[in-house]
Automatic annotation (TrEMBL):
Domain of life: Bacteria
UniProt xrefs under SUPFAM superfamilies: P-loop containing nucleoside triphosphate hydrolases (SSF52540)
Name of the molecule in the record: Dipeptide/oligopeptide/nickel ABC transporter ATP-binding protein
UniProt cross-references to Pfam families, sorted A to Z: ABC_tran
Amino acid sequence: MKISDRLKRMSGSIRLRTPDIAPASVGRFLANTAVTSSTSGTESTSDAAASSTAETLDSPVLAVERLSRTYAGAERPAVDDVSFSIGRGECLGLVGESGCGKSTLARCLLRIEDADSGSIILGGQDIARLNGRKLRPHRRRIQIVFQNPTAALNPKLKVSDSLIDPYEQLGQDAKLTHFAYTSRDAYIRQLLEAVELPAELASRYPHELSGGQRQRVTIARAISIEPDVVVLDEPTASLDVISQGAVLDLLTNLRTSLGLSYLFISHDLAAVHRMSQRIMVMREGEIVDRFDAGDLFAEERHAYTKELISIF
Ligand SMILES: Nc1ncnc2c1ncn2[C@@H]1O[C@H](COP(=O)(O)OP(=O)(O)OP(=O)(O)O)[C@@H](O)[C@H]1O
């Protein structure tokens, strides 16, 4: 079988529904939003628009310019002169093998770590060197979903308390357009509904949820304050293959319905190909290839991209 067929088959093989979640309540949630939704697995109008405008991003929601980060004592930079931009409603994929610098890049974007040089333009402002009170209003604009939801959620907090936390910390001054804060309970219900979880889960602790449900809670937290950009750092790596497909479908539906932009980070080329309109390939801290997702199998791909394809 040709490699391209194998990859397409792998992309399709994780297009499954998980049984441990509430039935498609996201449909009801999406019906309440102003933006057109897509059905999972098919490219929506907004996907096509994002794709066609991707290379001419006049006003990207995130523009990263020449970002570098070298850890003390390291022989080479973990992130080496990386530049890219993401358009509104677009999913930009970032693929590369373990240790190439994907998570370091993510942490720099979130300002969990400081880059040594370069800029991170978010909402028209370079946040790379802002700190304290000056950085605070910009934190709402970029959120992250980590690989391990168990580590990301405070085990001592009920789901409801975890979900309300970003709003209480960062969101109260924000103008929410999709979620309405009429009361704490109503807001939490909307968030759970958006990620297709039953309202009863609000009173549970993280250890009383499945792995897939826990990851849905971290996704709900990340989108709760309607950020411009969500960095998805291997968001399905800790899940079984059935839950992986369902969570990827959910993420696509949320992107199109809320107009979110994603940086989707993974070592899994099939998942990146399935999720993204454009793809960047990272190796040893550098972006070595970038292309529209539809051009993954084009002859001009970098030798390293072809190597990644051949692994599948
Ligand atoms: N806190 C740290 N201190 C020193 N070196 C680090 C630190 N974090 C990461 N590194 C190094 O930086 C490089 C990039 O690591 P990073 O975790 O960003 O890669 P990755 O592509 O996200 O890997 P994975 O997919 O396995 O998570 C590696 O060589 C790693 O050993």
